[in-house]
Design a protein that fits this description.
- With 340 residues, this protein is an alpha/beta fold.
- 32% of the residues lie in helices and 30% in strands.
- It has a five-stranded mixed beta sheet, with helices on one face. Strands 1-2-4-3 form a four-stranded mixed beta sheet, covered by helices on one side. The chain has a four-stranded mixed beta sheet with strand order 10-9-12-13, with helices on both faces.
- Helix 1 links the parallel strand 1 and strand 2.
- The radius of gyration is 19 Å and the shape is globular.
């Protein structure tokens, strides 16, 4: 039994998802206290319940405290994850990409290939957009030798949700990934899309992002038609890729926030990562840690900064896995090494 204080560090949902995923992967019983203690509404929300229930079903876990707004959780796996067909309905506009963050590392170690279908919000605040998931995280996993394919049936936004995505996962162990200390040449691409809103909003997001970024890029502008989305919403995601690394930035459309402000924020964020010489963006850095901790040997990357999510993950992961993290901060970069 490993006991974890859910108020440590970022004290939110990522600590919860990562802890339960690590428990399921290693077969180690977990007791988590103070769940999401640092959030305005502590305890388990709908998306967290959906993720934990799905993980429990995969490894036949015995659970305690699995209820809405519960602040204490017991999770005791009793079998290796079986894989196969998995369906998760968040029931709200809770993020499908955050649910997948919990499921992916577990299903990569499953006994057989899996297909996961998740219904919920595909492009919502405080979560990776669907485009970011597909064009940053999945290519990063591919560089580690992992095979994950994704498709979307329809987008869904706050407050209705209703989006649906599918992910096919081949079991496999990640390989170590050593990215260069600094990256030089980058290719910029991306997408600005809207649904149930004037197409001009997506174009305004794209134009503002391009102006703030200050370099050419291939950014697609899309207005989704009937059947492609539930409700009204949109998002913009920019990605810079090279042999040296992957950088992404995204924002979702919000009522009362001008399209130009969203596009400018995305452009400035990616420009800052590019100028720093980082090989992973701040968000990819924290999402990659659990996979790097599973890879034998030594891995490394650099980021413009380390988020509280990343620092929390580096505190949590060694409780379950024999991984060692080291951070060196100099010249405006945080260089992270992972060794197992």
């Amino acid at each position: 039994m490993i006991e974890v204080d859910g108020s440590y560090g970022e004290g939110g949902g990522q600590l919860l998802r990562t802890a339960v995923a690590l428990s399921a992967m290693t077969g180690t019983a977990l007791r988590l206290a103070n769940v999401r203690a640092k959030r305005p509404r502590p305890g388990l929300a709908a998306q967290h319940l959906a993720a934990v229930r799905a993980l429990a079903g995969l490894c036949d876990a015995r659970c305690e405290g699995l209820a809405l707004r519960s602040t204490a959780l017991g999770f005791e796996p009793r079998a290796r994850a079986a894989g196969g067909e998995v369906r998760v309905d968040v029931g709200t506009a809770g993020s499908v990409t955050l649910v997948l963050q919990a499921l992916l590392p577990v299903l990569l170690g499953a006994a057989r290939a899996s297909r996961v279908v998740v219904t919920g919000g595909t492009d919502v605040r405080q979560a990776p957009t669907w485009r970011y998931f597909c064009t940053v995280l999945l290519p990063l996993l591919e560089r580690m030798g992992l095979r994950v394919r994704a498709s979307i049936a329809r987008h869904g936004y706050y407050p209705r949700g209703g989006g649906e995505v599918s992910v096919d996962i081949e079991p496999g162990a990640p390989s170590a990934l050593m990215l260069p200390p600094r990256a030089a040449s980058w290719r910029v691409s991306g997408e600005a899309h809207v649904a149930g809103l004037p197409a001009a909003i997506a174009e305004r997001m794209r134009a503002a992002a391009a102006a703030a970024l200050g370099r050419p890029g291939d950014v697609e502008v899309r207005a989704l038609g009937l059947g492609e989305a539930i409700g009204a919403g949109g998002a913009i995601t920019l990605v810079a890729g090279s042999d040296a690394g992957l950088l992404g930035a995204s924002r979702v459309a919000e009522r009362g926030v001008r399209a130009e402000a969203l596009g400018e924020a995305v452009g400035r964020e990616l420009a800052a990562d590019l100028a720093s010489g980082a090989t992973l963006d701040v968000h990819a850095a924290d999402q990659a840690l659990v996979y790097l901790a599973l890879a034998p040997g030594r891995s490394g990357f650099s980021a413009r900064a380390l988020s509280s999510h990343a620092r929390t993950a580096m505190w949590l992961i060694p409780k379950f896995l024999p991984a060692r993290f080291a951070v060196e901060e100099a010249d405006g970069l945080a260089r992270v090494s992972v060794e197992r």
